[in-house]
Task: structure prediction
Amino acid sequence: MDVKKQFLKYVQYWPWFLASFILFTAAAYYYLGAVSPTYETSALINIDKMSEKDSEIISTDKVKTDKEEDLEKEKVFITSNDFLSKLVSDLKLNINYYEKGFIDNKVILDIPFVFKTHISNDSLSKITYNIKVTEDGFFVNESVSDGLSLVRNKTIYDISGVPFSLELTSKAKKNLSNYLDKEYVVTVEPTELAVKKLKLNLEIASDENLKTNLSLKHTGTNPMQSKRILNKLIESLDEDIFAEKQKKLGKTVAYLNQRIAAFTKEKDSIESIKESYLRNNNIYVLDQYIATKTNEKTAKTANSALNDRQISLTTFAINDIKRAGNSPLGTDYNLDLPSLSQMLINYNSSLAESELILQRAQKNNPAYLSLAAQLQVQKQSILSTLGDYLNQLKQTRIVNRIEQSNAISEAKSIPTKNKELGNIDNDLSLKEETYLALLQKREEAVLNGAVLDSNLSVLDFPQTNYSAISPKPKPFMLGTILFSLLLPFGIVYVKLKMDSRIHTQEDLNGQLADIPFLGNIPEIDANEKLDNTATSRSVIAEATRTLFSNITYLLPHSKDQLGKVLLFTSSIQGEGKSFCAFHNAVTISNLNKKVLLIGADLRNPQLHDYYNVQKSIPGLSDFLYNSSQSWKNFLVKKSDFSENLDVLFSGEIPPNPSQLLTNSNFEILLQEAKSFYDFIIIDSAPVQIVSDTLNFSYLADVTIYVAKSNFSEKSNLLQLNDFIKKGQLKNVGVIINGISKKSAYGYSYNYSYQEKKVKAPWFKRSMAFNN
Result:
């Protein structure tokens, strides 16, 4: 994007920008002086809520937490309707005083009268009074929805028809002349509306670093009133906090007395419960009770374990003896049965003796058989003894398990009884601690009530920042200047975006980028229109010379010396094709070239105007209609423009121009003319209106398509590509007619060959004068 060109597009509208800048800047300057600026007044207070912990009944945590320090409750209270309504009533914020202005009423501090209402604030309706101080009293103009009613009073104090009275201040009585004929505005509104306005202008915020601090801000046009509002707000808040603390302390002391009496009864009841519990459970000393029951459980468990071990060993011994067969029996079964060991030893001795007999004799030996029978008797006796012992052990196990279960049950009940007794002790201890704490809190509450003070402290008293927050002069002026430039810029931008017409060559780049651009024809006035002689230095002469130079590059190269046909056409009527055809014909003829200018626009001929002849003069249509006559007979030669220029006018307007232009007579004319002329210039009809030009366009060597600046639509040129693609127009070049002498891109056609006189510096002029 060419930034310079884009910039120059907007620069040509500099009067718009200048007018907008002057208008808006003057309006902004006047506005800043006419309206009352808005200022911000701020104060900082601290509310130490932790100091209230001393009077609380139960304090669970001494560490300050964010929740404890949060002042949301106070912020809600300050912005409540009840609190602000009292503030409005005390300060009479529902009555405002102004000095009448043209744009806006200005807040004033020096009010010459006292305004007193006769009815309650809630009964007031929103109304505005215009008041003038006169020598006789006051002149009141009441502005209401149903019209204006003028009331003049004869006394200073009472005015009939209005719910208020007026009285001059002592200062105004001394200097009445200073206030005469000044008009003041008094607005009266109900309390509810005044509270809403106060809420909008009041800002309460917590300090980010220390949440016990509250920042109070009020914005308004009257700094003195803003200070009064904040001071009154702090005073009222301090009084409410003090009253709330007194009320809280009274309730605290009453509640503490009630709870102390209740806890005295509860403590006595718990002590009686503990005494009954110890008696019912035979507990004299809890530690001795626990030791006794624990030892019993241990002993019973050990006896049961020993008995179970003997049963296991006895069972093993019986099974082992049964499996032994004729083998020796074990003698160490660890049984608590002394007679068993001797019986085992006797059995093993008899078994050894039988084995010796068997070694010397056979199994049928009487001695062996007698000894074998004895061994069976002995083994049976051992098993019988073990069986009796096992039965005895099992009976003992049943008894042991019953005793063990009882001991375990009593041992298991120890924690429960300990817990129950502990709970009783804990309840008793808690009641005693709470009882003592309540006694202490009651004493503290009584002491706090004796030295009660508010926990609100003012860190920063109300101060006004006299740098106005609305309107801010510098940002407001900068914004106004920016808007004054953006507004015409936006209008110009929309105008350029919505502009669908062709202005300069730049507009052709997107539509006809592949078609050669031949040049610009400047816009000229009537005096310059015919100034196109051979020696002319007019803008039209220079432009057409440049155009012809560019056309020569499009001419096809041929070895014959025949003349070239240049066809001038356009999209629609009024784009200046006849103008361009005529002046190019004059320019080429002044270059010592023989030129024939043909008016081929049979429907709307325009060349007659340049020669001041009638449109009925015979010409092309007459020849095409009747070729028996020579076309040369219809030529017009005038040396006013050039001796080398001949003109063949269009002739009388025929009823069938398309048929005439398509017969062979026109082609014959051109072939013959090429032998006599160097260039044949045809002024044809617009191609988008009629098809006349398209019927003979193939005869042209170069087609010059004319568009007019600030007139031709871009959409009209889109069809030119279709004509070229279909072969209806060939070897086409585009020119733009009617370009202003100082175009949108800053190019000037006011080029002059005359040397400008350069003014010499003052010191050189002085030297020349002296010489």
Q: What stands out?
A: The chain has four domains: 1-35+479-498, 36-246, 286-450, 505-739. The domain at 505-739 is CATH 3.40.50.300 (Rossmann fold).
